Amino acid sequence: MTERFDLPAGRLETRFSDKAPALSESEARREAARCLYCFDAPCIRSCPTSIDIPTFIRKIATGNLRGSARTILSANLLGASCARVCPVEVLCEGSCVYHDDGQPPIAIGRLQRHAMDHGGGPELLPRLNAARPGSIGLVGGGPASLACAGQLALLGHRPVIYEKRALPGGLNTTGVAPYKLPAEDALEEVESILALGVDLETGVEIGRDLTAEEVLARHDAVFLGPGLGPDSRLRVPGEEGPGVLGAVEWIERIKNDASYSLEGITQAVVVGGGNTAIDAARELRGLGVETVYLLYRRSAAEMGAYRHESDEALRGGVVLVEDVVVTEVLREGDALSGVRLAEAQGGRATDVEHGVLPTDLVLLAIGQSKLVELARSFPGVEVDDRGRIVADPATGRTGNPRVFTGGDALNGGKEVVNAAHDGQAAARAIDELIRDGGPRG
Ligand SMILES: Cc1cc2nc3c(=O)[nH]c(=O)nc-3n(C[C@H](O)[C@H](O)[C@H](O)COP(=O)(O)OP(=O)(O)OC[C@H]3O[C@@H](n4cnc5c(N)ncnc54)[C@H](O)[C@@H]3O)c2cc1C
Ligand code: SF4
To answer: Which atom of ligand 2 lies nearest, measured to the CA of 106?
Structure first.
């Protein structure tokens, strides 16, 4: 249990075991000894935060776990969560040279976890002792803001994060699959960042409790890291009512809400073909739901989910139904009874009726909306035609010289490691701006 944040006992997520369990000391050393310490290592190039992977692995091999953790954190302050949640199969491990010989790649993610579990946290990093002038406010307490705020603290600032939920951590706390990272461990990482000298105000929603003008009046610079908005809806008859939930909203319940139970649910459908759909389907199966259908409007080959994740879901008993769309949610009185399906062509419904699938639960994983209104409430901040905040990708600077951004709000929804990278890049740009005399000067 973390010292500062209370998570209720009995949450459904606690029933999952670790997908990639921690290595023992001898296993870690053995695996580290396999690394070839490649020149111009491809694993570094495929890490969005460019962690010096061969160096941190070498330090594990020589028993220097503190040094190893320091190497990781100096490139990525969220090294602990990234070790657990990164899709390493398509990033660092995916590019390991061992693949060329048909051998298993170095287990970089698990080695990184070993270093982070035993080597120490961001307190290991050097910090500037002189306090910097100026005040910085961050909107949202997810990975992007945490990385930004942590980096700012190391540079001598004392930033403040405004988080609308009771718990910080963003999707690391509320969304990431429990078999990768339980909320408890996500919150431990948050604590380690706050301990660098970051203030946190939870239960404060910008746009409701404080306006953009008020935030800009309080601070010299602002970082927007609110992530994405609520799950998208199907807009079909019968959808509004009990038993139909957004997948991200549902995952938050199993991770954080001890009062939520799946009692009486034996058959469920998940609509979508991306990573969130796959996660939700695997989590339903993992929680004992007997029959889980994944309904996708195109073919399996066109699914947006990572192949290794969708293969795992199918091996775990999830039943994929391709080329279908839900045209109606069926109810008996108020109660959910099933979904009506039609054949899809190119992702759209044809007139051919496909049938009715009885279900006790429908999870919608067809994307998340964008927080366009919030972004535009900051003068000078613009969004593109896909709802992403427009900013310089190198610094996160928006059309308002005092407002920066990063993470899902900027990239439309990628990974934790991208949010970490953006947050740290924006922190350096904000520090430069404030050192140059401040934007308001
Ligand atoms: C179901 C799911 C599973 C995922 N699994 C993985 C995975 O396994 N590996 C991986 O690398 N990535 C995964 N991702 C993606 C990853 O979680 C995100 O890319 C990352 O969390 C983005 O960080 P962020 O800080 O931009 O946004 P978020 O994590 O969404 O954090 C934003 C924070 O801002 C707060 N906020 C929003 N609006 C306001 C406001 N107006 N005022 C105050 N606070 C506000 C929110 O409450 C939230 O805490 C997953 C995403 C989902 C949806
Ligand atoms: S590519 Fe593989 S073997 Fe080479 S340095 Fe990276 S982890 Fe080690």
So the answer is: 7
